[in-house]
# Entry
Amino acid sequence: MKVKKILISQPEPADLEKSPYKNLITNHGVDITFYKFFEVVGLTASEFRKTRIHLTEYTAVIFNSKNSIDHFFRLAKELREVIPDTMKYFCSSEAIALYLQNYIQYRKRKIFFGNQYFSDLVEILGKHRDEKFLFPCSDEKQTEYTKLLDKSKFKYTKATMYTSVPRDLKQFDLTKFDLVCLFSPIGVRSLIKNFPDVAKMGVNIAAFGTSTHAALKAAGIKLTVAAPTKTSPSMAMAVENYITGKGQDDQVITRPNAKKETHTTRGTSTTSSTTTRKPKSVFANKAKYKQLQEERKAQAAARRAERQAAKEAKAAAEAKAAAELNQKAE
# Structure
């Protein structure tokens, strides 16, 4: 499949060189345009008060994005509600869990996260059913996350803290792109708002997540590339398989009621399972993924060492300057 131009409905990665999309550019000569299809607008404190939700009445919070973290702590500050140290945080991934360090001290005993999918987190939540859960989210009525929580019969309160507003996309000529990649239902709505006849334009659409697939189906828009799948757990891998002409495999089905249970905190992981067969990894190449993780850890360690060295050098320079000043004073 000849693909030369791709429109990604997300902001450009902070470090494109380390992004998986860099491989598409380097190995396949693809021209990628990044542009977020919507913007996030937070509710004001007065608007949130109308929901009659008091943050401190809950013992645990479920986060599925960095946006939800930002607006949770922003509203807590504006409402002058002090979040207790006993609050527990359940995050859909380790990256989101680590983002909490911008607001709180990272403690293993109160932060939990899944391995890759939200269904992994649902398994962890099952061990804490006595908690009073708050789920900060956008104004979408129902998502794949709420569907999983409802299906697993969790008692939680959905707290709308921000809204997603479609952006103007009229500067783009969709017919000039070989593939348009979407990641959420709001991305689909933004596309339809800007291009009402998109279903008739013959645009190839790649979409990530079951809720995004459902939004496309409801709008009558054909889905060309679906992700995640067993051989394509990421959008970048799904696009690469499409470019190279590999067939599409079955979509990965979330497992909210799987018998395997995983509880992961930073640096530790314990797993228990029944006699049922262990599900296969969604990663096509475990060795490559493990190597990537090790490289990231090494890079992080190098950055920490560099900062520490700079700090020590600064301290030494200050001490030397102070000693010279004392000598002159004598």
